[in-house]
Amino acid sequence: MSVGFVGLGQMGAPMAAHLAGKGLVVYDARPEAMTDLVKRGARAAANVADVARDAELISIMVRDDEQVQQVADELLPAARPGTVLAIHSTIRARTAEDLAARARPHGVEVVDAPVSGGFMGASAGTLAVMVGGSDAAFERCREPFGAWAELVLHMGPVGAGTRTKLARNLLHFVAFTAAAEAQRLAEASGVSLRKLGRVVRHTDAITGGPGSIMLRPSTAPLAPGDDLYDIMRHVRALGEKDLTFALELADELDVDVPLARLALDRFAAGLGLPEDTDG
Question: With a threshold of 0.90, does the pTM exceed it?
């Protein structure tokens, strides 16, 4: 399959590099961004429309919804019927759905395929990609995406990939705020923040971090006979104990930790357990 890649920034360039060679067509508004890939065998397109003339799958990794729309405006009239347009940028789910409707009269299929794993994963070829689109479009993308992604998942129809990415990033960035609370508590306690960070990174790599409890197929309360019920009761006992101790320390040191207080209040329900610890 001939692949086009539009947008060769911090993420796009290393992703495209895993596809470099005959059959890859690249474009970026900065000509210098294409130089390395051309040395590896890719063809530098003269413009966005030029990418569409050769490619059966076109990946777009630009900044935001507006840039995605601008690129699509140039690609769609030039694309051949049967082309798959893959949006890797994190955009609104509705933007992907609207773009799919616009592409349909051109015979072009759209998949929203945002990625997770940062530039480190892009360089190593170990990204996760969450794909929203038809079964047929997903099958056409699976192998090319596998060149730069270690985990390639079909999440559902167009828009499902973006909704998955937004849920994943909600966890990611709320965790950053929680990390700030933990650092304030550690700092007030006289603990080295850099050593705390080393501990967190080390143990999260072992346990899987917050993802380690994301095992349920539903957020509905767990039934007492569920296989996960006793496991979550154990997690709850440990979590509520440690959060209580951390809040006591925060009160002693006059450290503001509102997320921790909210976490303790909602911890049991988040695990799918009743408020009564004996339930």
Answer: yes
